[in-house]
Design a protein that fits this description.
By secondary structure, the chain is an alpha/beta fold. The protein is 42% helix and 13% strand. The chain contains seven helices and seven strands, in the order E-H-E-H-E-H-E-H-E-H-E-H-H-E. Strands 3-2-1-4-5-6-7 form a seven-stranded parallel beta sheet, with helices on both faces. Helix 1 packs parallel to helix 2, helix 1 packs across helix 7 and helix 3 runs parallel beside helix 4. It is globular. The model has no long low-confidence stretch (mean pLDDT 98). It binds NADPH dihydro-nicotinamide-adenine-dinucleotide phosphate. NADPH dihydro-nicotinamide-adenine-dinucleotide phosphate binds next to helix 1 and strand 2.
């Protein structure tokens, strides 16, 4: 039997890297994307991930392209399909935080457009293209029921007025997941929304002290930072079919952040 194939956007570091490693442990061939390729540097970026992932006896194909650029998206998809001829699991993980946090009363259109194009428009249309390919796969007959996973955020439903445009992009991405879940159900293609909480990566490096303090003060039920591995395990459980009867599910991987307390 052939190996299942996963495409993971933003696989060069952080959460995407953690997802790639967990799926590799479960025997997935992987297409991993990022903004750039640095084949001369195997210490970091997609080629570091490739070496790590391939130690689990699977294949990792690195592809570079800006997800917010329609032409780059087309090329990335072409390279992804050329690599293995199909995609069984799409993980929409690539995303950015803000260059500068500004109060919602000061947010600039430039920052809004940047974050919406990368975090929302890019994955929206990438998923549209992959979903159409998955439908063709289903019609041709496939041994793996395809699935699409969105890495959104607790910011999909938690207001942070000093980075409102990021929250809006993630809320939009969560709604993209819901709409695709509805549309793709008839084809047996499941769609999921994973909402990470506070995860230790480059994205959160600049706010380490702030979150250390909040966690210490009881923000989370599980008193520690999340790791890329925590998110990777949730993705692997979905990809492996352990949430088969749960399309459209929202899964928070946030150490109990979302539990309301009195
Ligand atoms: P990192 O900054 O560590 O990694 C971001 C990844 O996305 C990199 O692989 C990067 O590629 C890629 N990327 C960024 N911009 C683009 C682009 N324009 N086109 C293609 N790829 C791009 O972030 P995290 O691992 O922390 O975050 C991953 C996802 O998880 C994001 O969507 C984020 O919003 C979400 N998230 C993160 C949380 C956290 O606490 N860290 C919490 C909740 C959600 P390159 O290396 O080339 O720049």
């Amino acid at each position: 039997m052939r190996k299942p194939v996963a495409m993971i956007t933003g696989a060069s570091r952080g959460i995407g890297r953690g997802i790639a490693i967990e799926l590799a442990k479960h025997g997935y061939d992987i297409v991993g994307t990022a903004t750039r390729l640095t084949p001369e540097d195997r210490e970091k970026g997609l080629f570091e991930v490739k070496d790590r992932v391939e130690s689990y006896a699977v294949n990792f194909v690195p592809v570079a392209g800006d997800i917010s650029d329609p032409d780059a998206r087309k090329r990335v998809l072409h390279e992804a399909f050329s690599a293995f001829g199909r995609i069984d699991v799409l993980v929409n993980n690539a995303g950015v935080g803000l260059i500068k946090r500004l109060d919602i009363l000061e947010t600039t259109e430039e920052s809004y457009d940047r974050v919406m194009n990368i975090n929302l428009k890019g994955p929206f249309f990438l998923s549209q293209a992959v979903a159409n390919q998955m439908i063709r796969q289903v019609k041709q007959g496939t041994e793996y029921a395809p699935s699409i996973i969105f890495i959104t955020s607790i910011s999909s439903h938690t207001a942070s007025p000093s980075r409102a445009e990021y929250c809006v992009s993630k809320a939009g991405l969560s709604m993209t997941a819901q709409n695709l879940a509805v549309r793709l159900a008839e084809f047996g293609i499941n769609v999921y929304d994973i909402r990470p909480g506070i995860i230790s990566t480059d994205m959160t490096a600049a706010v380490t002290e702030k979150y250390d303090k909040l966690i210490e003060e009881g923000l989370l039920l599980q008193k520690r930072w999340g790791t890329p591995e925590d998110v990777g395990k949730a993705v692997a459980a979905i990809a492996e079919g352990y949430f088969e009867y749960a399309t459209g599910a929202v899964i928070e991987v946030g150490g109990g952040f979302g539990v309301l307390r009195l």
